[in-house]
Amino acid sequence: MTAASTPGADLGSRRFEGRSALVTGGARGQGAAHVERLAREGAYVLAADVLDSDGEQLAAALTAEGLRVAYRHLDVTRADDWAAAVAQIDQQTGRLDVLVNNAGIIHVNPLRDETLASWNQILAVNLTGPLLGIQTVVPVMRRSGGSIINVASIFGVVGAAGYAGYTASKGGLLALTKTAALELAADGIRVNAVVPGGVSTPMNEAEKDGGVVPETPLARRANVTEIAAAVAFLASGDASFVTGTELAVDGGFLAH
After folding, report:
1. What is the pLDDT of residues 9-66, one digit of tens each?
2. Separation of alpha carbons 198 and 10, rounded Å
3. Which residues contact 171 (CB under 8 A, 6 or more apart)?
4. What letter would DSSP give residue 127?
5. Mean pLDDT, rounded, for 155-182
6. How far apart are alpha carbons 204 and 252 in whole angstroms?
7. Number of structural domains, the chain?
8. Active site residues
9. CA–CA separation, 221 vs 30, rounded Å?
10. Which of 4, 83, 74 shows the shortest CA–CA distance to 39?
11. What is the pTM of this model?
12. What is the CATH number of the domain that holds 52?
């Protein structure tokens, strides 16, 4: 399902006309939905990922519809990749208004079995990656202000048995969000986090016992376009007085 076919999607809006955005992990899933939503509202979007084939296909499909989308390989753990991606947007548009730190990985290891290698890997992608991104975009973004959205998780707010590295990385991302919001407010840069609950993907629809659905008051997973709508809100002028906060899009999971 594309954003265009999602009930309630306000795609008549052109909130991002003349703006540019960088979305990491943008080749598929949640990231692709963020790319599409921002592009349909008028932004030039650079989708960045390590899944080059998927990313190139996404960019080609959206470009064929007349949207302004490009793809670039970006390993979020590499500072030089970040510098090249931001330079590309700056050269193309002369500005950078939105950064969506969406790239992330997950693995399941009970605490007693967590290895240093897997711990370091998940922190590198889920926490160090957003740090490098924020550091890299600030010099360009401070010219006209902007919005940084970090995609966290309900399991950065509450614990989850078997997910030591993942919960630590997402909890750290929420703390980084607040600190960055405090430090960058004077530059006109807002920093917020989206906190998704269960999201519908082919992989997690097959989860044993329904994953988090039994604990979700709305009794379902989110469509990726519902997370993208929250990202678009935080990226837009409609959220001009919102910074340092966590927007839960979780069907009520955290209300328990």
Report:
1. 556 689 999 999 999 999 999 999 999 999 999 999 999 999 999 999 999 999 999 9
2. 23
3. 156, 157
4. I
5. 97
6. 19
7. 1
8. 166
9. 13
10. 4
11. 0.94
12. 3.40.50.720
In contact, 38 and 45? CB cutoff 8 Å: yes
DSSP string of 156-171? Answer: GTS--TTBHHHHHHHH
Residue 55 lies in a domain: yes
Question: Within a domain: residue 3?
Answer: no
Q: Based on the number of CB atoms within 10 Å of its own CB, is 131 exposed (0-12), middle (13-18) or buried (19 or more)? A: middle
How many CB atoms sit inside 10 A of residue 71's CB? 25
DSSP assignment letter at 244? S
Q: What is the pLDDT of residue 210?
A: 82
* Predicted confidence (pLDDT) at residue 179 exceeds the cutoff of 60: yes
Answer whether residue 5 is part of any domain.
no
Indicate the average pLDDT of the chain.
94
**Strand order across the 189-196 sheet:** 69-73, 44-49, 20-24, 98-101, 146-151, 189-196, 246-249
Domain range holding 35? 13-251
